[in-house]
Design goal:
The chain is mostly beta strands. The chain is 7% helix and 40% strand. It has 5 helices and 27 strands. A 4-stranded antiparallel beta sheet has the order 1-2-3-4, with no helix packed on it. Strand 22 and strand 23 form a beta hairpin.
């Protein structure tokens, strides 16, 4: 598989066991909860491996079976769970797509956003058939991560992390504004919004060299968390689905998983049985942040670990 860039799981993972991993050598799919994997692009009979940099799955996957995968300057999409694929080239010259994110209301709004290195963001409002650049107000076109508000249909809010900082759009990507995140702490490798963002204005940002940051007021002010504990880059941040009641935060930092049960005040090692010499690039926690539930990890030197 080589480097694993992104992992997503079916919203119905507990019952169907389906998950996808975007890898340097293609897009891999598992139908048994991450125990066995096969290349979902085999049906395309590619002449050489199709490096896949990001994957996104429809929130209504159980019924629409829709998956998107970023390959070079194109986005492939499947509506049968990855058996057949169609491609849409985003633009010319071909951009390098670094990340994909899908609206929580995708079944209705058909909204997708792709971040690129050097070319900013592209948006589709018709389920990936057509894409257009949307970079008004965006001062840094090197996009490393994206997160969409869970109440996107009401607040139209998107955050992106770049080489130099964090930008927000409050109108579904039509225009962007830089937040007050201190630029000296970039690049931003990961972003995660509170499930209750519209009410609490909370989001987290993981940096390459300066640890984890949090804002309570939609990016106006930032505080650093775990400064004496978190010493490596943060490639992934996952908040519990009930964060507003139980403020649990899971991060992938270097070769470790760390968890806080008190909103970042204290940190513990998560999954003590985890043993890896590789950097953890991406994480999926399809059944929540419990020691008893499975966690899927994508590694820098290849391979997926289920712990």
């Amino acid at each position: 598989m080589e480097t694993v860039y992104s992992i997503v799981a079916s919203p119905n993972f507990k019952n169907d066991g389906i998950c996808f991993a975007a890898c340097q050598s293609g897009l891999y799919k598992s139908e048994d909860g991450g125990n066995r994997w096969y290349n979902a692009f085999d049906s395309l009979n590619p002449r050489k491996p199709l490096t896949t940099t990001s994957v996104a799955i429809s929130p209504a996957f159980e019924t629409d079976q829709t998956v998107f995968a970023a390959v070079g300057g194109a986005v492939l999409h499947s509506t049968d769970g990855g058996k057949k694929w169609e491609a849409t080239v985003i633009s010319s010259p071909v951009p390098y797509i670094s990340c994909l994110s899908i609206s929580p209301g995708f079944e209705i709004d058909g909204f997708l956003i792709a971040g690129t290195l050097e070319d900013g963001v592209f948006i589709s409002t018709d389920r990936g058939k057509h894409w257009k650049p949307c970079n008004f107000g965006l001062l840094d076109l090197n996009i490393l991560c994206i997160d969409i508000s869970s109440q996107f249909e009401k607040d139209e809010t998107i955050y992106i992390g770049t080489e130099s900082g964090i930008f927000i759009s409050k109108n579904a990507g039509k225009a962007w504004k830089e937040t007050n995140f201190p630029p000296e702490f970039g690049p931003i490798l990961s972003i995660s919004l509170s499930p209750n963002y519209r009410e609490d204005g909370t989001l987290f940002a993981g940096t390459e060299s300066y640890g984890l940051f949090k804002t309570y007021n939609k990016g106006n002010e930032w505080i650093r968390l775990g400064e004496n504990i978190i010493s490596e880059g943060i490639n992934s941040i996952i908040l519990s689905s009930t964060y507003f009641q139980k403020p649990e935060i899971l991060i992938a930092s270097g070769q470790k998983l760390l968890i806080s049960y008190d909103d970042g005040k204290t940190w513990l090692t998560f999954k003590n049985n985890l043993q890896t010499e590789d950097e953890i690039i991406c994480v999926a926690a399809p059944q929540g942040l419990s020691e008893r539930e499975p966690i899927l990890l994508g590694l820098s030197k290849g391979g997926i670990i289920k712990v």
